[in-house]
Write a structure and sequence with these properties.
This protein is mainly beta. It has a domain at 51-288: YVTN repeat-like/Quinoprotein amine dehydrogenase (Methylamine Dehydrogenase, Chain H, 7 Propeller), CATH 2.130.10.10. It contains three helices and 27 strands. The protein has helices at 28-34, 228-231, 282-288, and strands spanning 8-9, 37-39, 54-59, 65-70, 75-81, 84-86, 102-107, 114-119, 123-128, 133-139, 149-154, 160-165, 174-178, 183-188, 196-201, 208-213, 217-222, 232-237, 242-249, 255-261, 266-270, 276-280, 297-304, 310-316, 323-330, 333-340, 346-347. The strands form seven sheets. Strands 2-26-25-24-23 form a five-stranded mixed β-sheet, covered by helices on one side. The protein is globular and about 60 Å long.
Length: 357
Amino acid sequence: MGKNKIFNEPEESSDEEDPIIDDDTCDRFEIEDSFAVKYKIADESAVSLKKVYILHLCSDKSFGRIAAGLSNNSVQMFDINNQKLSHPSFDTLPPKSPVGAVCGVRFLDDSPNTLLIGSTNGDVTLYDLRTGISEHSYEGPAESTKNTICCFDVNSNGRVICSGTDKIRSEVYLQFFDVRQKALMGGYFESHEDDITAIKFHPTNPDLLCTGSIDGLINFFDISQTSEDDALLTTVNTESSVHKLNWHKNVYEKDYISCITHTNDLKTYECEEGDLIAEFERCQVTDKIKRKSVSDCSLISCHDLADGGVFLLATSNYNKGEVVRSVKLQGKKLLPHALFDENKQIIRESMYDPQVS
């Protein structure tokens, strides 16, 4: 989609019984004038002729290769050349399995040839994309094997994997693995009380980690510390259920976090003290993308811009998701930013490369 690479999934409107027929709140001339940045689809590729959804996306460091985790428990790879998508020599890994669903994909390091795939059956597996062969599976301790892995991430130097589990009999685990030693390093067991739904390492500091859960908590950890109590830096109570987290920097180079909740609200928090910076309810985002139906509005992801700004990608699921727009975060305000025209499918996940001009 122009300079942005966004993969879509076919689906109907999120709420077909909504009494409000979704539409723009103003005419097309005002829409064009308000959203100054315009994008068109550069290329698109179907992952399946069946009803298969893209649930997870990641790219290598150069943004030349993309991995897509699908709802049929498989992962497909795509290469990007001159804004054209193509399959490499293989197109699906691992073999489709009824045992566990894909819960995340991450490239391990600077190389586009090593991919981590998380599975809800309880492990994170390292694949060599040159051969399509599994190199190693990182599994938790025996007491956590009954827990399903919900999400995972790898830190900025590619040496530590952290996975988060669901809740079984009041037990919830954050598990840490040494990538090179191929061994379990330990875990945190007391910082969350429900399914862990988001794990995000800091983009440059390999020891800084934030995690989110259905319990509404966002925890910040320094994993270089020897105990869970010492590692826990700050806890934020969103009073909601955490869906997605991302790291950003303000104009003073201070870290802050964007949080999208399962109720499609957006909150931003300062990291050192955990103070709330701004919050935007779903109805406010709907208004800012200039649509009428709140129940059709879906918040996808927050992304960094090359100029240091941050934008939120949002869509309307009405009429198969043809409306895709973004708003820019400016302090405690949301401002219209960009239009993504010609979309024909509902979007569930997105990526953005700020370095492409």
